[in-house]
Design goal:
Largest sheet: 5 strands, antiparallel
Order of helices and strands: EHHEEHEE
Strand content: 25-35%
Helix content: 25-40%
Strand order of the largest sheet: 1-2-3-5-4
Radius of gyration: 15 Å
Number of strands: 5
Distance between the termini: 22 Å
Shape: globular
Structural class: alpha+beta
């Protein structure tokens, strides 16, 4: 199976989170996902959380990747699994935090867990790669926020 992979380098600056969201939105059309579809919004939120974790909590530059099955214009481009990866050079593993009701942070991995079908992380060289996957079915994503499916896979 062919895979369309897109990637961007992210500097160790919190302003890069917004740039990553804009970059991802501009690339979704190439994959057959309309920017106004609920699936696109889910992917943008996942990207935002993973990039935020990389640049804010590690203080390191990172690489954001989006992988689409079938690739643009290829058979199967509307189905399969979309994978988002963020690799950084920090060996510190991701850690869930318990956010209080008024806390402005600490919910990122909980969001990833609730929105992605699978997610995990793995050591990579002297750093790590955090990934999540969203399955693209033929059904509508209209209820994606109503009944999130979560399975944590740690590779």
């Amino acid at each position: 199976m062919q895979v369309l992979q897109m990637q961007m380098e992210v500097r160790a600056d919190p302003a890069e989170v917004g740039r990553a969201r804009r970059w991802a939105r501009s690339r979704l059309a190439c994959s057959g996902i309309g920017v106004d579809e609920p699936l696109a919004e889910t992917l943008i939120l996942l990207i935002s959380e993973l990039v935020t974790n990389a640049v804010v909590h590690t203080g390191c530059p990172a690489v954001l990747r989006m992988l689409f099955p079938g690739g643009a214009g290829m058979p199967g481009a509307c189905g399969g699994t979309v994978r988002v990866e963020v690799a950084d050079i920090s060996a510190r593993p991701p850690r869930r935090r318990c956010a209080g009701g008024e806390d402005t942070g600490g919910r990122g991995l909980e969001l990833v867990d609730g929105l992605a079908d699978r997610w995990g992380w793995q050591a990579e060289g002297s750093g790590k790669r955090i990934w999540c996957e969203v399955d693209r079915g033929s059904s509508s994503w209209a209820g994606a926020f109503d009944a999130p499916r979560a399975v944590i896979n740690r590779a």
